[in-house]
Amino acid sequence: MTEVIVLIYYNQMSLTLLLLVQVMISLLNGLFDPATRGMLPQLVEKDQLTRANSTVAALRTLSLMLGPVIGAVLYGNFGVTMLFFVNGISFLLSGISEMMIRYIHVSREAASGIPGIFKDLKEGIKYIAVNKIIKKSCWFFLVTYLFVQPIFQVVLPLFFKSRLAYSDTRYGFLQSILVFGMLLGSFGVSFFFGKEKDMLKPLTFGSGLLLASMLIFSILLFPNSLSILGEASILYFAIISIILCLFSASILFIHIPVQTFIQKGTPDEYMSRVFSLVNMISRGGTPFGSLLYGIILEVVEVQWTIMAAALFLVVITIILLTSLQNTIKCGDTTKVS
Predict the structure, then answer these.
(1) pLDDT for residue 107
(2) Is residue 187 in a domain?
């Protein structure tokens, strides 16, 4: 990071180097995220895990809200060099604060080098494969990242900028609404299900909220809805803002309970490996989903695409919830289905 700051200061920064820095940061985040998620169960009591995960999710959402604002202020007053300098200081302070965390590390015998990495990966896959509840929980992550997350990245920009021709101000406000929905969902999980031991209750609530908001959103995309409500009217803008807020919040009602359950059900020595695979399984679905939506939207109207995706998700969610409920009732968590 220091070298980058020097290059920027002397106006020697290139696009290639900037992209390489971004790749490095993303790779490091891939190491940081599973480790922190795996460490959390050793820092809080088991019955406080849901609230702890909700708090972490809320803080991450706040960073998404405040980060662009702080960045804009720093860039406007001091330039891009100051942005990288402050960013580097934030990484340094983060590392120092993590050095002060005290927890019991469960040591194990591990192979070194590339063979050790593949061995750890194999053990993590095996653990998820034989634990039916965790395996089915991972499907909820995969489904939401495959069919829901690309809506925010592909469908919304396409619809709002082309069909509605919203101004940058309105579009920016809707993006803020999505982030606010995530924050609302984080607090909602903590408030309503903070001490809930049954994962199915918040998961069922979140799935129902997700499907309802997604269906209503698809209806709002139809030309008849636009003509009745008025696409440029305050009423339409207010309704779609509320639906998008609930849409965004519902994802947290799914992800936090599932994450908490995986943390509770995974031994400490497998924790980081399991969450590395969970991240890979879930986040790996986003680019494929974006590609799929992009191909479909070339030939199918956006409203029919979202309606079909919502109806498909209704069927998939019912199957997953029913299967997960039966597995929990039977207590069968170690047999491969």
Answers:
(1) 56
(2) yes
